[in-house]
Design brief:
The chain has one helix spanning 47-54, and strands at residues 11-13, 26-27, 34-35, 38-40. The chain has one helix and four strands; from the N terminus they run E-E-E-E-H. The protein is an alpha+beta fold and 55 residues long. The model has no long low-confidence stretch (mean pLDDT 91).
């Protein structure tokens, strides 16, 4: 929420697999959990640009 208005964001992530079937995970900064690399799109950014920036 921003004031009394809802803020909508768009996120994306990537599943990156190596030749042995392992996937790339990142340890999240906001908790003791692991997840796929990804993040929130910036204004006028494409999904592809977001994934490249986040990975």
């Amino acid at each position: 929420m921003i004031g009394h208005k809802t803020l909508l964001t768009i996120g994306c992530g990537a599943i990156i697999e190596d030749d042995r079937g392992r996937i790339l995970l990142q340890k999240r900064a906001d908790g003791d959990v692991w997840g796929i690399p990804g993040g929130i799109l910036e204004i006028a950014e494409t999904f592809e640009d977001t994934v490249k920036r986040e990975v």
